[in-house]
Amino acid sequence: QVQLVESGGGLVQAGDSLRLSCAASGRPFGHGTMGWFRQAPGKEREFVAAISGSYGSTYYVDSVKGRFTISRDNAKNTVVLQMNSLKPEDTAVYYCAASIALIVGGAGRDLGFYDYWGQGTQVTVSS
After folding, report:
1. CA separation for the pair 10, 8 (Å, rounded)
2. Which of 41, 51, 54, 122 lies deepest, with the highest CB count within 10 Å?
3. CA torsion sign, 46 to 78 to 117 to 112?
4. How confident is the prediction for the chain on average, in pLDDT?
5. How high is the pLDDT of residue 119?
6. 21: closest CA among 7, 36, 10, 40?
7. Facing residues of 36 across strands?
8. Over the stretch 19-71, which tens digit does the pLDDT of each residue have?
């Protein structure tokens, strides 16, 4: 049984940093895709970042480019989202997701691309 467990959320001030981690168990995803989505109150879940394939190609939503970095440790089957220069609009529940497939085109931005999801971790950024 595959499980994704997120950690690292919390309450910070604007401009601060947070590091989210997601540990996967049950199957390896080193040749697939792992990503992060977020959902703010009253809004739909949206794509944030993904890392795909053996070479670790990365993808980001425009609003986090230059501030967030996604990375992966295949030996530990984990993915990390380093979030710097946080803004109040980054406030959301952040979800880890994993797929056995590689990203082709814009597929990695779609919720339906992912086979597995974590329970989410709250990130709150105060102004």
Report:
1. 7
2. 51
3. positive
4. 95
5. 97
6. 7
7. 49, 96
8. 999 999 999 898 899 999 999 999 999 999 999 988 899 999 999 999 999 99
* Rounded CA separation 48/63 (Å): 8
Question: What are the residues facing 123 on neighbouring strands?
Answer: 10, 92
Residue 61 CA to its chain's centroid (Å): 11
Top-confidence residue, 53 or 8? 8
Predicted confidence (pLDDT) at residue 105 exceeds the cutoff of 90 = no
Q: How far apart are CA 36 and CA 118, in angstroms?
A: 10
Q: 């779609």: which residue's tokens?
A: 110
Cα–Cα distance for residue pair 72/22, rounded to 1 Å: 9
